[in-house]
Design a protein that fits this description.
- The complex is a heterodimer of chains A (about 400) and B (about 375).
- Chain A has about 400 residues and is an alpha/beta fold.
- Chain A has helices at about 40-50, 65-70, 105-110, 110-115, 135-145, 200-210, 220-230, 250-260, 400-410, and strands at about 5-10, 35, 40, 55-60, 85-90, 120-125, 130, 150-155, 165-170, 175-180, 190-200, 235-240, 245, 285-290, 295-300, 305, 310-315, 320, 325, 330, 335, 340-345, 345-350, 355, 360, 375-380, 385, 390, 395.
- Chain B folds into 2 domains: about 5-265, Spore Coat Polysaccharide Biosynthesis Protein SpsA, Chain A, CATH 3.90.550; about 280-365, UDP N-Acetylglucosamine Acyltransferase, domain 1 (3 Solenoid), CATH 2.160.10.
- Chain B is built from 9 helices and 28 strands.
- In chain B, strands 5-4-1-6-11-8-12 form a 7-stranded mixed β-sheet, sandwiched between helices.
- In chain B, a hairpin with a 5-residue loop joins strand 9 and strand 10 (about 175-180).
- The chains are: A alpha/beta (about 400), B alpha/beta (about 375).
- Strand 14 of chain A pairs antiparallel with strand 16 of chain B.
């Protein structure tokens, strides 16, 4: 029998993240690159390890290859221990009633045997689409102190944005009396961060009940939490303050990357007490050439910068040729920006080539119609021809570019 | 496929007297280089990239930093059940003489005897290069050589101590070997790397020990030039021998050349090193960087020109860093001026300091100093 683990973490990593468009065409959202050398999943994984949680199940479903490969043995996060560590948990076939993960709660339900092996007291449910540094052990201590059955981490958001989140309405002692998903008239600004601590015996009961209910959509926010509240279980809100950002949309992903460049935002990812670990590429330090101009930027290893870079994040192995300009943009690993190309307010994914004098995105101040403006996005492996223009807010992938090239050839 | 019947053996402590400042608290192998590496990363990665999967690292003294760097060998893919990395600490407590290669090899005898590989590749850790030892091996086999010595043709670096100079016949066979002949012209000099049959190596060591011969070059190689088939392998790629502080400085500066980087950090044969999990380098508002090598974890707000910055270096506002090598976690305060400075790990340079070395004499600041 495996040694008991007080806490088992279950990381929901199966979502497609369709709002990220071409960026999640071939990989799951948690595997999307972030911050020059990370992938989103590095945050929950590193938080787990730094909080002393040694046992993490990663639930995958949509396009899992990149994610599986990235997690590997879990060694970069010290999660390659013999008795616990990280396990990738895809849906699987069983003797009867096999199915895909139908919802977040169903994904956990299908893996009850995995959790039971460790005989845990608590289960923490995490999601793979947020950027934050958080000590889960404090939240678990709070859960114990309140003798709660379920604790939901909440963060204060501006009242006018509260309608976009799941809002927890609480009493003075922190207990939750109501949970509203995307309310039109929010009563509070405490948004759920999608982090739940459950007392395992209770959660198990509710998962089984939920599974037995054919009308249920098997979702934590929609079904399990409301059911628990209705039954009068002890549910508490745990307030977190610090940096937290959902990176589920192009705009928020771009903003969150830019936040790393802002010295006023406290998000130091190499702070020795709470490092964010990642699978590091094997590359030499980067080189900034003689006539290059680099300011307000995050530059990873293996880059060669000959051109101009301002307010941008360059991932490993990126080349910016002489005379190329990259502003307010995110350039993902191994992409080349050729001479004379101008990339502004854009996200260019991995392994792309932005041809000579090509133009990707524009600055908002140069666009008349503000509604037509947005971040331009180039999917992975694209080769943007010489002089080609990608308009603001446009999203291209390889197929679309190839189609257009064929059209032009005709 | 891994595995090519070659055992790697690295001397981590040789030539330390030539770099006495930097090796005061560490081995030659753990001398930091090129922004994020240690010198031993080059021979280790070269071996791994050439298919060698068993490497012994011979240590003598001061090897704490080396052990720290190597760990289990995971970063080089050498933490394995079959073969892998072996650290060979000194076997007995006797003080070693300076020219102690034979003694060290003799104390590694049991490691050599218990290995199964047919060949041994022996190298020091003071040459920065990206060499494919598989090529050396195939030439060795083709030449039916007993010993193949990796050489370089050209002018030996000025401060190269005791270079072995070889006279090589057109078929690569070594017909003569001179130690420190004193000529400054073009010649074929050894890079302190050689390939030898394991059993022959054991025999030659035993032979030297039994005759109380202790000089590796003189007694083991030179004496046997006529007795064995010794061949030279001419390595034509980029190679820098770190044989003085100036050579160390110059080799770091050579990384600014695109061609050198392309050869040394060939993506097909990457140089591995210990991972630190630092954030990518951050450039602040008003930073100005030109012709420099910058590593992860750096935070730059000032001006950096022609310099190599290791992981975690901070350069504050108003500071000018020109022609410097700043090792890991060195922090330079605001409004400083640094020129031709080698700052060791964790050096703290407070605000408004002026430190000026010279091209031919870079100023060295010892580990952990506060200026």
């Amino acid at each position: 029998m495996l040694p008991k683990q007080e806490v088992v973490a279950m990381l929901l990593a199966g979502g497609q993240g369709s709002r990220l468009g071409v960026l999640t065409k071939t990989l799951a959202k948690p595997a999307v690159p972030y911050g020059g050398k990370y992938r989103i999943i590095d945050f929950p994984l590193s938080n787990c390890v730094n909080s002393g949680i040694e046992c993490v199940g990663v639930l995958t479903q949509y396009q899992p290859l990149v994610l599986n490969e990235y997690i590997g043995s879990g060694q970069p996060w010290d999660l390659d221990s013999t008795s616990a560590g990280v396990r990738v948990l895809p849906p699987y076939q069983r003797s009867r009633r096999s199915d895909w993960y139908k919802g977040t709660a169903n994904a956990i339900y299908q893996n009850i045997p995995y959790i039971e092996r460790y005989n845990p007291d608590y289960v923490i449910v995490l999601s793979g689409d947020h950027i934050y540094k958080m000590d889960y052990s404090k939240m678990i201590a709070y859960h114990k102190e309140k003798k709660a059955d379920c604790t939901v981490a909440v963060i204060e958001v501006p009242m006018e944005e509260a309608g976009r989140f799941g809002i927890m309405n609480t009493n003075a002692d922190g207990s939750v009396y109501e949970f509203e998903e995307k309310p039109k008239a929010p009563k509070s600004n405490q948004a759920s961060m999608g982090i739940y601590v459950f007392t395992w015996s209770k959660l198990r009961e509710y998962l089984e009940e939920d599974e037995a209910n054919p009308k249920s959509s098997n979702d934590f926010g929609k079904d399990v939490l409301p059911a628990m509240l209705k039954a009068g279980e002890r549910m508490f809100a745990y307030r977190f303050d610090g940096y937290w950002k959902d990176v589920g949309t192009i705009d928020s992903l771009w903003e969150s990357n830019m936040d790393l460049l802002n010295p006023k935002i406290p998000l130091d990812l190499s702070e020795s007490a709470w490092k964010i670990y990642s699978r590091n590429p094997v590359m030499p330090p980067h080189y900034i050439a003689k006539n290059a101009k680099v300011q307000n930027a995050l530059v990873a290893e293996g880059c060669n910068v000959y051109g101009m870079v301002d307010f941008s994040v360059l991932f490993s192995g990126v080349t910016i040729a002489p005379g190329a300009v990259v502003r307010d943009s995110i350039i993902m690993p191994n992409t080349r920006v050729e001479a004379g190309a101008v990339v502004q307010y854009a996200i260019v994914a991995e392994d792309c080539v932005v041809g000579r004098n090509a133009v990707v995105g524009r600055r908002p101040e140069d666009v008349q119609d503000k509604d037509a403006w947005g971040i331009a996005v180039v999917g992975d492996g694209c080769s943007i021809p010489e002089g080609f223009v990608i308009r603001p807010k446009e999203m291209v992938d390889r197929e679309k570019l190839e189609q257009e090239a064929r059209k032009n050839a005709r | 496929m891994r595995g090519n019947n070659v055992l790697g053996l690295i001397f981590s402590n040789m030539h330390e007297e030539q770099l006495h400042d930097l090796t005061e608290n560490r081995t030659m192998g753990s001398v930091p280089f090129g922004g994020r590496y240690c010198l031993i990363d080059f021979p280790l990665s070269n071996m791994v990239n050439s298919g060698i999967n068993k490497v012994g690292v011979i240590t003598k003294r001061n090897f704490q930093s080396l052990m720290d760097h190597l760990g289990s060998g995971k970063s080089w893919d050498l933490s394995r059940k079959r073969e892998g990395l072996f650290i060979l600490p000194p076997f007995d407590a006797e003080p070693f003489s300076p020219n102690d290669r034979i003694e060290l090899l003799s104390s590694a005898q049991s490691f050599l005897q218990n290995s199964r590989e047919e060949f041994v590749l022996i190298t020091d850790s003071n040459v920065v290069c990206n060499i494919d030892y598989a090529d050396v091996l195939s030439q060795h086999i083709q030449d039916k050589a007993d010993i193949t010595i990796v050489c370089r043709c050209g002018k030996p670096p000025a401060e190269f101590a005791d270079p072995a100079v070889y006279t090589v016949a057109p078929d690569n066979r070594v017909c003569d070997m001179l130690i420190n002949p004193g000529n400054k012209g073009e010649c074929c000099y050894g890079l302190n790397m050689m390939l030898i049959r394991r059993e022959l190596l054991i025999r030659l060591i035993t032979d030297c020990v039994s005759r109380n011969m202790t000089n590796f070059k003189r007694d083991l190689l030179q004496r046997n030039v006529g007795n064995y088939r010794i061949y030279a392998y001419d390595f034509k790629g980029f190679a820098k021998v770190i044989c003085s502080e100036i050579a160390y400085f110059d080799a770091n500066m050579a990384l600014m050349l695109p061609d050198v980087r392309a050869q040394l950090f060939d993506q097909r044969r990457p140089i591995y090193t210990k991972v630190h999990d630092n954030m990518p380098a951050r450039y602040g508002l008003g930073s100005s960087v030109s012709n420099s090598i910058v590593s992860d974890g750096c935070v730059i707000e000032g001006e950096v020109v022609n310099s190599v910055l290791f992981r975690g270096v901070h350069v504050d506002k108003g500071t000018r860093v020109h022609n410097c090598v700043l090792l890991q976690d060195a922090a330079v305060g605001s409004d400083c001026r640094l020129s031709y400075v080698i700052a060791d790990k964790n050096v703290l340079i407070k605000n408004e300091r002026n430190l000026l070395g010279f091209e031919s004499y870079p100023m060295y600041i010892a580990k952990g100093s506060v200026v």
